[in-house]
Design brief:
The chain is 4% helix and 46% strand. The protein has 114 residues and is mostly beta strands. 29% of the residues are buried. It is globular, with a radius of gyration of 13 Å. The strands form two sheets. The chain has a six-stranded mixed β-sheet, with no helix packed on it. It has a four-stranded antiparallel β-sheet with strand order 1-3-8-7, with no helix packed on it.
Length: 114
Amino acid sequence: QVQLVESGGGLVQPGGSLRLSCLASPRFFVMATMAWYRQAPGKQRELVGTISPRSTTNSVDSVEGRFAISRDNDKNMMYLQMNNLKPEDTAVYYCNKVDGNWRWGEGTQVTVSS
């Protein structure tokens, strides 16, 4: 059973930065296209971006140029560097395989507010 643990969230002012981390159980991580998702209050979970096993990335338009996804396969880690954060980025952030097929972790709360 794959386990996913997200961390690094917090309260930040608009324009600030955060770096989220995702630790995955090692057995399947290296071969998986991974993704970051987020769920804002009262909204459905949405895709933020993806990263292939060889680190080809894609992001949704709303975060393009501000967020960057990376991974370290040796450490079974994935990261989300978030810059120039906006209040509308406030959400619980989750990591998972791109199809969302692994058991969801608890996520990490990101709050952007002055």
